[in-house]
Amino acid sequence: MICSECGKRTKKTKGSVQAQSLLLGEITVPGITRDLCKCGKYWLDMDNARKIAEYVTAHEVGAISSLPVDNFVSRKQACDVLGWTVQEFRKNQRVKNGFIIFYATLQGERYYLRESVEMFRDTKDGRFNILTCGQRVTRLQVLAATIQ
Ligand SMILES: [Zn+2]
User: Fold this and answer.
1) Packing angle, helices 114-123 and 131-147, rounded to 10
2) Span from the CA of 33 to the centroid of ligand 1 (angstroms)
3) Distance 42 CA to ligand 1 centre (A)
4) Which residue in 44, 69, 94, 128 has the fewest CB atoms around it within 10 Å?
5) Can you tell me the distance from the alpha carbon of 79 to that of 44, in angstroms, rounded to the nearest whole number?
6) Considering the entire predicted model, what is its pTM?
7) 143 and 74 in one domain?
């Protein structure tokens, strides 16, 4: 095809593309076929666009699941933080949408990221860049150890 930016002919090329993740920031997705132009612009077909979305989702789930267990609270504990009943929690549309409060599943039970629950309580939006979460926890623990 012809590039709409510069008018040169594009070439089908397989390689890495950069994708944006709310949780992880910019991530590199390998093995994506796209129509690439010398000017740097590229176009994706549906299959490769879906491949990128799946890759990003898998890495987000992996990042959440790899956080230390004590960063997570049960649904009952999450309700205590929010001052809600379990039913209110279940019925809340923002929670239902799945991406407001991050969670990991362990033996069929959902565990919610404590920091995300607290952020949700304070701002109604519990999403943040997850890579900074582990660092903040580590820093807090170091601080607590110094004070004692
Ligand atoms: Zn071009």
Assistant:
1) 100
2) 17
3) 8
4) 69
5) 43
6) 0.58
7) yes
Which residues crowd ion ligand 1, with CB under 5 Å? 3, 5-6, 8, 37, 39, 41
Residues 84 and 108 in one domain: yes
pLDDT at 12: 95
Between the CA of 44 and the centroid of ligand 1 the distance, in Å, is 14
Distance 40 CA to ligand 1 centre (A): 6
Tokens, residue 3: 């590039």
**14 C-alpha to ligand 1 centroid (Å):** 17
Residue 2 lies in a domain: no
How remote is the CA of residue 9 from the centroid of ligand 1, in Å?
7
Q: Are residues 134 and 85 in the same domain?
A: yes
C-alpha 28 – ligand 1 centre gap (Å)? 22
pLDDT at 93: 87
Task: Give the separation between CA 12 and CA 40, rounded to whole angstroms.
Answer: 13
- According to DSSP, the residues that pair with 28 across neighbouring strands are 18
Number of domains in the chain: 2
Kindly state whether residues 79 and 135 are assigned to the same domain: yes
Cα separation, 3 vs 103, whole angstroms:
42
Which pLDDT belongs to residue 101?
65
The answer to whether residues 73 and 142 belong to one domain is yes
What is the span of the domain harbouring residue 73? 69-147
